[in-house]
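We both want to read discrete structure tokens more fluently, so let's practise on a single case. Would you supply a protein for us yourself, any chain you care to pick? Would you write everything just below, so we can both look at the same thing?
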Amino acid sequence: MPVAGPDAPEVKILAHNAGFEIVASADRAWCFDRRTRGPGIAAAVSGGLAGVLFVNAAVALVLALGGGAIGPWWLPLLEAGLGVIAGLVCKFSLNLRQARFACERAKLRPLVVVDRHAGLAYDADGQALARTDEIPARKGMLIDSSAPALRLLLPSGKRVEVFRGSLFGGGIEAGLEALRELGFAK
């Protein structure tokens, strides 16, 4: 009987938050990272810049129409044009981000794959890491973020981040419960 892939109908989402997913079928489990980093940051920055430019253009236009121009006549047009460009960059970045979140799991590179029957964890290349009961799942904070995270501490000493919580509310309990269900050590 073939093993179901990560997009099969019988695959259930055990936990998901902040771009991380832990999904499982009866035979396998996968940990995925859907975060986009670059496009998300680009969308936020360009969207904010577009808003500022449009407000500046509107203020300059209103003042110019009222006879109290604060600059040359072309300034509101330039600001509006730059706002349109920033808005297009924002839209393009959001499209990239949405494409990553809508992507089939089979097209993503898993962080960890678990053979539930054998109790073994593998990396994305199919190399055995260790038995799941030999790999502790630990809570921790990350240097680059204030959000709590869950990491698997591999026997080699390497740490693999497999889940991240919320900046404000924790949110790693579901991920920790999912990892325990998959047999990872306490």
In short: The mean pLDDT is 90.
